[in-house]
Specification:
- The chain is α/β, with parallel strands linked by helices and 283 residues long.
- The protein has 11 helices and 10 strands.
- It has a single domain, classed as TIM Barrel, CATH 3.20.20.150.
- The chain has helices at residues 11-15, 21-30, 40-43, 50-60, 78-97, 116-134, 153-163, 174-179, 184-191, 229-238, 255-282, and strands at residues 2-6, 35-39, 63-70, 102-106, 140-144, 168-173, 195-200, 203-205, 217-219, 244-247.
- Helix 5 packs across helix 6 (116-134).
- The protein starts with a strand and ends with a helix.
- 41% of the residues are buried.
Amino acid sequence: MKVAISMRSVHRPLMQGEMRVVDFVKYAASLAVDGVELDDVYLQGADVNYVEVQDVLRETGLKVSCYDIHHQLEPLQGRAQKVALEEIKAELAVAELLGAHFVKIAGGTFGPNIASQEVEELVLQLVDMVMPVLLGKDLILAIENPASSKFKSYDLARLVKQIDHPQVKVGFNMANALMAGEDPEQALQDLQDQIAHVRVADVRLRMQDEEPQSDMYVGCVVGLGLVPLEKLFRALRARSFEGWISLEFNGLENAYFGTEASLKNLRKSFAELQSDAAHADLV
């Protein structure tokens, strides 16, 4: 499995102007990971020199594990749909330029009052809009399982199977499964045949004086929260998953500390997994 760092891990430094896109890539390279997950939230309107980003990616040897495009999932018709599609086309061009193979297109979260059928209709509309643009390109749309109490992982698995296109797969978000009220192991099992990209994030229950980031949860250092990392990694290994693991720290701690502590815990989990496999081979 290849490890990437998501730009969301250093959200504050990027939003406060302390870090540029190229600085982020260099920072990720200093952590000796394999790639970066880029996000248009931090690239749009940031006066980004894409040639410079390409050069730094080439110099560091990092690959773009995924490119995230934010598109508000809401019913669109007529001119609004055309405008949204043109914006997505422009971002897909950036994803290609920077060498991404996977793209995720999503925006916001689904509230508890949004029915499963509504979520399904919005996702299908998005796929209908985007697929003609993706055809012939080396890009795969990875639909992420939402933190929705109504639209579960088995619903997404059924929907992707219904779409039945090699360029439409699943981006499995470990924390989202838990926040949706699912057993993350069961969610992974439901989605296993469709998973093309994995996002590792962790959450814990909020303390009394903390503002929840989602329902009753706040983000935390990966490995210190409620997401059963080791069990999920074992399940991925058992399914011979060799794709990207994108690390996203979204806790309240300092961004650099949280990212590096999360990466340390992630590598520890990988090492233990490797050790377990070696011992099993000796038995």
